[in-house]
Amino acid sequence: MARSSRTVRLLFGTTLAGLVAFGAAPAQSQETRAAIEAGNKQVSAAFAKGDAAALAALYTRTAEVFPPGGDVAKGKEAIQKMFQGAIDAGVKDLTLSTVEVEQHGDTAHEVGVWTMKGPDGAVVDHGKYIVVWKKEQGRWKLHRDIWNGSTPPKP
Amino acid sequence: MARSSRTVRLLFGTTLAGLVAFGAAPAQSQETRAAIEAGNKQVSAAFAKGDAAALAALYTRTAEVFPPGGDVAKGKEAIQKMFQGAIDAGVKDLTLSTVEVEQHGDTAHEVGVWTMKGPDGAVVDHGKYIVVWKKEQGRWKLHRDIWNGSTPPKP
Asked: Which of the residues A18, A72, A141, A145 has the least number of beta carbons within 10 Å of its own beta carbon?
């Protein structure tokens, strides 16, 4: 079945690109989008510093993160531990680019794309994500966070 | 058999239990959650029948799907093509289990877990997803859809 899964991913890999070229502008305030983009810059900065505690601090108290290849990380302690694992594994240069933000009161969902670079500055992986943000004590924080990679697995 | 029961235990013992045990009940109407759960059953039924057109019809006109290992599928035609690829690769027995629904007017986001079984009924893969649903012409449809697998990559 590993073979079938790989085939599935390969076939998925043949679908069209164009994530950044989306048309319709969804409901959002520019202020909220700016706050989310600033939050994403803080994510990148924390990875660059290798600071898993700073990463966890960007999440709500009841946040859940859904990493590929692992189970849910629930709550700040588990989230910090998971990101420490990513940092230890060499994740350092991560860029998050917002494609879409749709706000509903103190909740917003964001669609975006991520790019990871290696020590030589070359892109080593890229993909997309959905984050549900919540305003907690006046500050937008990541509340639900899932992503995957777009690179087809090697045959 | 030993392997599949271990997988089942991993799924239900860790992933699902962990998600279900999450305390706070988010804002939702029971009606909306029921509609979303019914929509998920339609997804499973369409996979079981190998009907990619029926799958695509469950999505909004401006839907976007973010499959692992591939780029975004944007719009019904691209979504149908992507699911046809999955069906052709053998995806047939897919179960979606809602963990959380949070509704904001005609938008809702769902967190859930998925299980894929092989022809012998054994679980071959499992993971989690976030779907943003939109009420379109009075009917809840999938609007943004991303998932990943929870099985760690083989060393």
From this structure: A18
- ipTM of this predicted complex? 0.83
CATH number for the segment(s) A27-149: 3.10.450.50
CA distance A91 to chain B (A): 17
Inter-residue contact A128 to A111 (CB < 8 Å): yes
Local confidence pLDDT in tens for the 155 residues of chain A: 344 444 444 443 333 333 333 434 445 689 999 999 999 999 999 999 999 999 999 999 999 999 999 999 999 999 999 999 999 999 999 999 999 999 999 999 999 999 999 999 999 999 999 999 999 999 999 999 999 999 988 77
Q: Is A132 touching B (CB cutoff 8 A)?
A: yes
Nearest CA in chain A to B62: A24
Calpha distance B108→A122 (Å, rounded):
38
Q: Using 50, 70 and 90 to split pLDDT, how confident is the model at B28? A: low
Which one, of A130, A62, A32, A78, lies nearest residue B26 by Cα?
A62
Q: A11 touching B, CB under 8 A?
A: yes
Helix (H) or strand (E) holding A87: helix A76-88
Domain B2-21+43-149 falls in which CATH fold? Nuclear Transport Factor 2; Chain: A, (3.10.450)
Closest in A74, A104, A144 to B107, CB measured: A104
Is A115 touching B (CB cutoff 8 A)? no
Does the pLDDT value for residue B3 go beyond 90?
no
Q: What is the pLDDT of residues B55-106, one digit of tens each?
A: 999 999 999 999 999 999 999 999 999 999 999 999 999 999 999 999 999 9
**Preferred mutation among B14, B72, B128 to probe A, highest tally of A CBs within 10 A:** B72
CB pairs under 8 A between A and B: 158
Q: Chain B: residue nearest A153 by CA?
A: B69
DSSP A18: -
Q: Say how far apart CA B82 and CA B42 lie, in whole Å.
A: 17
CB contact under 8 A, B82 and A17: no
- Nearest CA to B48 out of B95, B112, B8 is that of B95
